[in-house]
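Hi W.,

Here's what went into the run:
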Amino acid sequence: MISKTFIKETKELFREGRVRISLFIVLLLLGVAVWISAKQYQNINEQYAMAKTAEREVWDNQGEKNPHSAAHYGTYAFKPKYPLSLVDQGVDKYAGTSIFLEAHKRNEAQFSAAADQTGLARFGDLTPDFILLFIIPLLIILLGYNSFTKESEMGTLTLLKSQGISSFSWMMGKWSALFFPIFVKTAVLFLIAGIVLNNLNDFGVFNWTSLGVMFLVYIGYYIIFINIVLLISSLVKKSGISLVLSLCVWILACLAAPKAASNIAESKHPYPTRQEFAANVLKDKKEGLDGHDPWSKESKLLEKKVLQEYGVDSLHQLPFNFSAYRMQKGEEHEAEVYFKHYNYLKEQYANQSKVYRNLAAISPYLPTRFLSMAIASTDYDTHWDFADAAETYRIATQKFLNDNTAQNTRYGERGYKASANFWQQLPAFAYEPPELDTVLHRNSSNMMVLGIWLFASFGLMFFTTKII
Amino acid sequence: MIITNNLTKKYGDQIALDQLTLKVGEGEIYCLLGANGAGKSTTINLLLGFTEPTSGNASINQLDVHKNPKATKQLLAYIPENLMLYPSLTAVENLDYFSGISGKKLSTPILKDFLEEAGLQSEAFDKRISAFSKGMRQKVGIAIALAKDAKVLLLDEPTSGLDPKASNEFGQLLQKLRDKGVATLMATHDLFRAKEIGTHVGIMKDGRLKQEFIVDNITLNELEMFYLDTMTYKEETL
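Here's what came out:
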C-alpha cells in the first residue's frame, strides 16, 4: 500500500506544472550557485597560493638584517579556503583571510571578503548553503502543504476511507513521495560538488566522507521539514491554512529563530568592544615586562634574577645577550596577556554557542547550520583554531628571532645583523583544520538536538496517523 | 448481506436516524427513497463506519461494522453522488491505486478488463480523469467495485445529475452486479430508477423507515403514490 501511494503521489507531483517549474528553478539556482562558488573557490585559492608564496619569498630574501627589525617587519599567516566551503561558506566571508604576525602584538584576522564589498553585500550571495538551508525547505512546503488537505478538498478522502486504507501506510506513502524528489535533488547537488572538488586537486585535500556526512545532516534537516509539513497538512482542513502554517514554521525556524538567537546570545554574553579590548590588553601589558624598556621595575627584577641564576655580577658576563633575552621574556609576558584576553573572548563565544544550542529546540535550522559550517571548516571554531595556530607560530617566530640575537651577540653590542640565509631556517606556517572525528565530537550536542528533532517530528507524525 | 438492527444516530437532540432495521440479501438491490435529511446518507455513513451509531448495530456479511471496520471495508464498495478521482491520473491508474490500497494486485490488462466490464470505452482507459464526465467517473467507480470483488455495494444518489442515457447504463451495470450476487443499498430520489433496477424499496422520512415494498409487488404509479403520501403526511399533521 505504501508503494502504491508513493507511485500515485509521485505521478501527481510530476504531472503538476507548479512542481515541474519549482523543481526546474531550484535545480537552476543550485547549478548557478555551485558554478559561482566553484569559481570563487578557485580564484581565492589561487590568490592564497600566490600570496603565500610571495610573502615567504619576501621573508626568505630579507638579506642581512637585525632579527628584531625582522620581527617588527613581520609576516602573514594566510587562511586557506577549504574544499567544502564550496557547499557552505559559513562565516568565511566575515572572518578575515590573513593575520599579520609581528613582535609584541597579536593581531586579528583581516581582509575579510565582506570588507571588500559595497553595502549591496547586505543582500547576500547566491550560494549552495543558501539554497540548501532556505530554498529547499520552501520547496518541501510547496510540494507537501496539500498532501492531505487535497484529499478532502478533491473529495477523494471518502473513497479512500471506504477502501479501508491504513493511515500509517497512507502517511508513509505520502512521506516517501515527498522525500524522494528532495533526496534526489540533494544527492545530485552533493555529487556535482564532490566531482567538482575532486577535480580541483591543487587546492586542499577533499574528503568524500566529510561530504557524505554533510549530505546526511541536510537529509536529516529535510526529513524534519517533511515531517512538519505533512503533520500540518494532516491536521488542518484547508490547503490555504496548511500553506500559511507551514510558511510560518519556515519563517520562525529559518529567519526569526537565528536572528533572535543571535540577539539573545549577544545580550546575555556580550563581547567587549574593540576599544575596551585594546584598553584591557594595554593595561595588563603595562603591568608586566616590556622587552624594550630596560629601566622598568620588571626589567630590573629580571636582571637581578638572571645574574643570580648564572652567578655573575654583570650582564656583560652572561653567555648570551641579555637585551635579546629580556625581549623574549617581554614577548612571553605579552603572549600571556593576549592568551588571557583572547581566552575570555573564546569563553564568551562558547557561552553564546550554548545559547544557540538551547534555542535549537525551536528551530532545526540552528543545529543544521552549525553542523554544516563545522564540517565545511567554515565555522568560528575553525577560525579560532586558525587564529590560535597563527599565534603559536607568531610566538615561536619571536623566540626563533630573539634566540638568534641572544646567542650571537653580547650585552651592549649594537648593529647585529643575521645572515641572509638565516630566514629560511624558520619553518613556514602550516595549518590543517580539525579532522572530521574532532569536528563531530565538538558538535555532538548539535547532532543530538537534530536527532531529537528527527525523532520528535516522526513521533508526532505517526501519532497523527491515529486521528486522520 | 447488509443487516441493520434498530440503528440509531443522534446529533445532540436531533435524531438523524431512528431505529432503522433492514436487510439486504445477496443479489438484492435495496433502494432507499426519501427527501433530503430523511436519513439515507446517515445510514450509508454508518454502514461505511464513518460515524458511530448512538445505538443499535449494523453488520455486513455477519461482521459488525463498528467492531470490524477493516474487515467490513474489504467487503464493500462505495460510490458517492459525486465520485471524485485523481484528475491528473488516468482511469487505469486510478483503478490501479484504489484496488491496490484495498490489497488487490492486478495487472494492467486485468484492470482494463474491469473498466471494459464497467462500460467505459477503451479510448478513455489511458486518458486523465480530468477529462471525464460524471457518468464516466461513475463507471470507474463500478470498475473499482468489480476489481475489489465487493460483496456489498453502497451507493449514495449515484445517478443524480446523470443524463438519462448514462443513468440507464449505470442501472444496467448495477443489474449485472446484482446477478453476480452483490448486495446493493442505494440511496436515491429517483423513483423510476428504483422501480426499474431495485428488488426492494424503502421510503424514509425524518430518520425513520416508513414503508417497505418488494418491487415486483408494486407498480410505479403505486410507488409514486405511496411516496407522495409519505412525504405529504407531515405537512398535513403540521
